[in-house]
DNA sequence: ATGAAAGCGCTAACAT
DNA sequence: ATGTTAGCGCTTTCAT
């Protein structure tokens, strides 16, 4: 790897001039040309590492998400990317797999690589953002807002969404509405379950027999659905708190010949790939991409020095019947 | 951000000693302890940037993929991650969106950030890996092997898979078997189409009316399927060359009431989320995760200095009837 | 076992 | 407009 020194020597100028050429500073056309030629000749690429060390900051932002296999998060990632790229930043994705160790490691990297900022959908439980915050590394939380930390957040109203979805089931006349939600240490999971509880209370099914904490993944949804159906008095409807679990739940319902409309189903989040045969399901649409673009915009503001108090932006999620 | 100098001062030792403590070199227990305490006190994190600059290499590897929203690539990513992590490396994902500019940018970053290596599923056309290769940055291609570059590659036999899938359709008695494949500048797309051609030749349908180049995405599959069905003499079966497009194609078939078994369908790649209602489809299983783990292992070997000639590993993809 | 010091490649004063 | 130089934070000889 050639350095600016070698390019400088080849072009007959000083290293500073080479640097200036690559950073758009004032350089006479002839020298600039000479530098560019020499650089091309040697196929010189400026070292980002050295630049980052010198500048104490880079143009890459980290996007930390708990499950890269969930289409919701990949759609969100696309949103982040588009906005970030347009502003000249690159995005690197870090998959934590809902695991705190991995998460911590990535945050550590972001910090010690002096990345420009991080957008994080926190793994379950209390994520430790204190390091980032202490070092004033711009952070914005997305989808899930970490407990007790004062950072920008872009979220949806999980409780209201859960309530609306469940309410739709109530209005459809179902009597025993179950709830399959995510891990109990993930905020969005409990909030959506709270929404469910809001709606079923007074409807006779406050009963926690009908509440299942799963893992936000396909198999977890399937297992929970099986358990519910095995109950002495099985539910006649179910509110599923995320997209992936709904795939599992529907699969089980299908196997047992109890697909909607035989069973009522409402889902928080969009089905990743619509079922081929139209099935009447209630869906709370998640503005995944929009969450991403919004978070990226907030982060960019922070990066450029915006110092106002932390903001929380709540995006609307729309209730739509599907099928 | 405290530096080793400040930690050294606080602990009453030299910077070199601090460095040694953090790198497992020989240091007396007392001093080591003092250093650790001071470091914790100041919540010191060694600068990876400085370390990378000094060492001229880091412990992160870049995984460059063309479509982060495709479950095939995310599964592959999981495979890479698991192997890399176990060896102490972190993986950052770079989404190129099948776009050469983005790809080039990420490769440039990998290089100028002196990453340990890169695993790449190249965007369509000829990816330029020359920079990486010239600088001896370890590279392994996965899923798609870039043209005319001599690098390790982990792939599947696309042509054989396409042939087998189509052959299954032939054996099921279909007469006019169409093919929906990916972009014509993506190797895997043309190879799978070649496999289709192998199988339909002699079956009367070599006719390119039945061949469609789409974009490897859901909508592309849907559009292509619509076009095919609008033909004067529409096909009675279709071989779809990737997972996402099959979702689109099946959707269109469903809308027109022509779902299998009315129409024959064979797919290269696993349906991301199986249809609820069992539908008889032939699937060429893609060992996505395995592609990832294998690529990661090859890369790790190269990183540790393995200098043998480039290898190409062809993984088996298994034909399975589904539904 | 420990310290002093050079240097990884770059940028930004400061000088000219 | 251009060159000189110090220094970003770390690792690693080379001494001791």
Automatic annotation (TrEMBL), chains A, B:
Keyword hit for Plastid: no
MF terms (GO), sorted A to Z: DNA-binding transcription factor activity; transcription cis-regulatory region binding
Gene3D superfamilies per UniProt: 3.40.50.2300, lambda repressor-like DNA-binding domains (1.10.260.40)
Keywords, in A-Z order: DNA-binding, Repressor, Transcription, Transcription regulation
Domain of life: Bacteria
HTH lacI-type domain location: 2-55
Pfam families attached to this UniProt entry: LacI, Peripla_BP_1
InterPro entries listed in its UniProt record: HTH_LacI, Lambda_DNA-bd_dom_sf, Peripla_BP/Lac1_sug-bd_dom, Peripla_BP_I
Record-given protein name: LacI family transcriptional regulator
Organism: Catellatospora methionotrophica
């Amino acid at each position: 790897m050639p350095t600016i020194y070698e390019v400088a020597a080849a072009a007959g100028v000083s290293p500073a001039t080479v640097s200036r050429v690559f950073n758009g500073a004032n350089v006479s056309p002839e020298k600039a040309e000479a530098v560019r030629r020499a650089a091309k000749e040697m196929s010189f690429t400026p070292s980002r590492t050295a630049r980052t060390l010198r500048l104490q900051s880079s143009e890459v932002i980290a996007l930390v998400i708990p499950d890269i296999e969930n289409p919701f998060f990949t759609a969100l990632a696309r949103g982040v990317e588009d906005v970030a790229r347009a502003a000249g930043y690159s995005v690197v994705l870090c998959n934590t797999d809902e695991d705190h160790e991995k998460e911590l490691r990535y945050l550590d990297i972001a910090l010690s690589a002096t990345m420009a900022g991080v957008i994080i959908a926190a793994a379950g439980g209390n994520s430790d953002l204190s390091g980032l915050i202490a070092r004033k590394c711009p952070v914005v939380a997305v989808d899930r807002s970490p407990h007790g930390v004062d950072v920008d957040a872009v979220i949806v109203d999980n409780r209201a969404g859960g309530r609306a979805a469940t309410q739709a089931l109530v209005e459809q006349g179902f009597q025993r509405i179950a709830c399959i939600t995510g891990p109990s240490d993930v905020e969005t999971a409990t909030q959506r379950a709270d929404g469910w509880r809001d709606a079923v209370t007074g409807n006779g099914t406050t009963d926690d027999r009908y509440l299942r904490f799963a893992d936000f993944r396909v198999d977890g949804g399937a297992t929970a659905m099986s358990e519910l159906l095995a109950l002495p008095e099985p539910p006649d409807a179910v509110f599923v708190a995320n997209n992936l679990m709904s795939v599992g739940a529907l699969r089980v319902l299908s196997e047992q010949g109890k697909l909607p409309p035989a069973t009522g189903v409402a889902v928080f989040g969009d089905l990743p790939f619509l079922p081929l045969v139209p099935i009447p399901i209630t869906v709370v649409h998640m503005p995944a991409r929009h969450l991403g673009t919004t978070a990226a915009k907030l982060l960019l503001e922070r990066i450029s020095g915006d110092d106002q108090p932390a903001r929380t932006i709540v995006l609307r999620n729309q209730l739509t019947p599907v099928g």
